[in-house]
């Protein structure tokens, strides 16, 4: 029984005594009791209304609190996401800085080599190209070798002596000596194919550089025959350009892409 029902029952009990003398109340007393009950009823009704108002307010506050908790939770997640994003961004910035520094260092190496090769470039003994992001020092066959042979001419030895002096001065760099031919097949007892000739010439140059101070562990020799032409083989001028020795400045390990994520795939 709620408070309003209790007050109503009390009023009903008191008013039922009005016609009965046995209740022991005078008319004035009965009226006073009735008035008292009315006051109590109004007070209880007021309290009941206040209680309902407080319950409604509590529900509103509970809903608002739940919304605030959810917002705070979402904000907390967003803050964590932003923190992770910031950390990833900082890591990316550091990686980009490192790559930029590597690029600057590599560019400086290229510039140093160009400066030291300037005299040979000007005299036509060699030319320098950038191929697939690598610096390539190119020496023509007619300077280094006679046609169809892999023995250095005196002029070639002089040119390679100058080249060796430059390569020795470039620290922490590896090189590949690559031999190339035109597409006219060669077939002799010593060189059954252009592959044999291009490889033999690369080995000859590599051995000469090693004999002139370039550490042998800093370069390799390879023959490409006519598979990587620098110009068209349709004209004599193009074929002359294709008969060449290239000294390729190889990238350092830290300049190569990181393939560590592929480790699990190769097991």
Tell me about this structure.
With 267 residues, the protein is of the alpha+beta class. The protein has two domains: 49 residues; 142 residues, 60s Ribosomal Protein L30, Chain: A. It is 59% helix and 11% strand. Strands 1-2-5-3-4 form a five-stranded mixed sheet. It is rod-shaped. About 4% of the residues have low confidence.
- Overall mean confidence score, pLDDT: 80
CATH class of the largest domain: Alpha Beta
Total count of strands: 5
Number of domains: 2
Helix and strand layout, with pairings?
Layout: H1 3-15, H2 27-122, E1 126-131, E2 134-140, H3 141-144, H4 154-168, E3 175-180, H5 194-211, E4 219-223, H6 236-242, E5 244-249, H7 263-266
Parallel strand pairs: 3-4
Antiparallel strand pairs: 1-2, 2-5, 3-5
Helix pairs in contact: 1-2, 2-4, 4-5
State the gist of this model:
By secondary structure, this protein is an alpha+beta fold. It has helices spanning 3-15, 27-122, 141-144, 154-168, 194-211, 236-242, 263-266; strands at 126-131, 134-140, 175-180, 219-223, 244-249.
């Amino acid at each position: 029984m709620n408070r309003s029902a209790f007050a109503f029952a009390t009023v009903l009990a008191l008013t039922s005594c009005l016609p009965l003398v046995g209740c022991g109340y005078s008319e004035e007393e009965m009226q006073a009791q009735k008035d008292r009950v009315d006051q109590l009823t109004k007070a209880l009704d007021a309290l009941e209304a206040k209680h309902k108002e407080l319950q409604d307010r509590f529900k509103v506050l509970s809903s608002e609190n739940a919304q605030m908790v959810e917002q705070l939770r979402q904000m907390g997640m967003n803050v964590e996401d932003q923190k992770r994003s910031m950390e990833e961004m900082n890591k990316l910035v550091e990686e980009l800085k490192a790559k930029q520094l590597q690029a600057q260092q590599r560019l400086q190496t290229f510039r140093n080599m160009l400066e030291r090769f300037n005299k040979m470039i000007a005299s036509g003994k060699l030319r320098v190209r950038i191929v697939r992001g690598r610096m390539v020092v190119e020496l023509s066959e007619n300077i280094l070798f006679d046609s169809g042979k892999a023995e250095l001419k005196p002029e070639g030895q002089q040119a390679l002596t100058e080249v060796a002096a430059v390569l020795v001065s470039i620290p922490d760099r590896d090189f590949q000596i690559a031999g190339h031919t035109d597409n006219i097949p060669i077939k002799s007892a010593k060189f059954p194919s252009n592959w044999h000739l291009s490889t033999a010439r690369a080995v000859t140059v590599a051995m000469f550089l090693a004999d002139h101070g370039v550490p042998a562990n800093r370069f390799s020799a390879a023959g490409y025959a006519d598979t990587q032409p620098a110009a068209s083989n349709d004209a004599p001028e193009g074929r002359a350009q294709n008969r060449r020795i290239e000294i390729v400045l190889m990238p350092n390990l830290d300049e190569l892409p990181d393939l560590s994520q592929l480790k699990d795939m190769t097991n």
